[in-house]
Amino acid sequence: MEPLYEEYLANRGTIVKPYYWLSFSLDCSNCPYHIRTGEEARVPYTEFYQIFGFPYGPVYPQTKHLTFYELKTSSGSLVQKGHASSCTGNNTHPESMLFEMNGYFDSAVHNNNTIRHIILYSNNSPCNEANHCCIGKMYNFLITYPDVTVSIYFSQLYHTEPEFPASAWNREALRSLASLWPRVTLSPISGGIWYSLLNNFVSGVSGSTVFQPILTGRALADRHNAYEINAITGVKPYFTDVLPQTEENQNIRAQVALESYLNNKIIPGQSLQVTNGQPQPNLTPDLKVPVVFVLVPFRDLPPIHVGQSPHKPSYIVRHLNMPQMSFQETKDLRSPPMGMPVDGVEITEQFARSKEVDEKKKKKKGKK
């Protein structure tokens, strides 16, 4: 195997050229060392917030791609941690670099047969657009290494909305990748995973920052991501919802903010307004107000499954526990629309026969 990359020893890990011909570029601040391992993989807190949108919520517009990763054994022991950043000069995504044939992951697994599980934590879900083919490369990697499983966590979906020309292609590719479940899982970053990222991949973080509450804007985005990836793939994601669910008013507040998030892609500091034909009380939550704090142990990750080499499926979509509907949707289902009369009728066999006899009598009278 002739590797595409070059790796150099650094003070706290290694730095890697994902393509050996890369050189320093004024067009890309990370060139040429886009892959960093060990403690070299840590990024400043400000960069983590700007790219991943934690703790306030998504930051728009977002042009950078960053993927943290962990390589683990079948027992869960860590072999290596690192990160890969996108190259703006060559327009290359992190997943494309990592899963390239003869690339870094290909070489790592080829030379270390104890690696059985790869965990990715990305600010964007993987795409399959023509310039990147991230999902296609991941698919080929999984076929080459049938004993390896992959868990993908993301902070926002990438180009899956209808306004993006490649959205249909990306959604179909995500469905195809999710069809490899349980070897592959696609889930939003949520709950305790945020704190694990702060602890393992972010530098200059104090104890109070590591355990700060997840704020409403971030929690709403995580919930939206869980709903959307379920709707796209038909597979229920691993997701920890930290929003309060107990009181009706809290559900209304969450619904208001979520609807505004979907319509306007809210950012911290934006005001939200909802009208239903008449003035509404101010139900808008402050996105910087912490929700009920729930720290979920990172050991609650889904189990690692290792199966036989699968043939590439044409389409397998598993529907597992469809996502919960919003508070307003469930409320609408419980009561009929105003002004619409509703009659309850119990249909029995005797009722059906008597109805049939009445219809025959009416026909006979019509003939006379």
TrEMBL record:
<protein>
    <submittedName>
        <fullName>C-&gt;U-editing enzyme APOBEC-4</fullName>
    </submittedName>
</protein>
<dbReference type="Pfam" id="PF18778">
    <property type="entry name" value="NAD1"/>
</dbReference>
<feature type="domain" description="CMP/dCMP-type deaminase">
    <location>
        <begin position="61"/>
        <end position="177"/>
    </location>
</feature>
<dbReference type="InterPro" id="IPR038953">
    <property type="entry name" value="APOBEC4"/>
</dbReference>
<dbReference type="InterPro" id="IPR002125">
    <property type="entry name" value="CMP_dCMP_dom"/>
</dbReference>
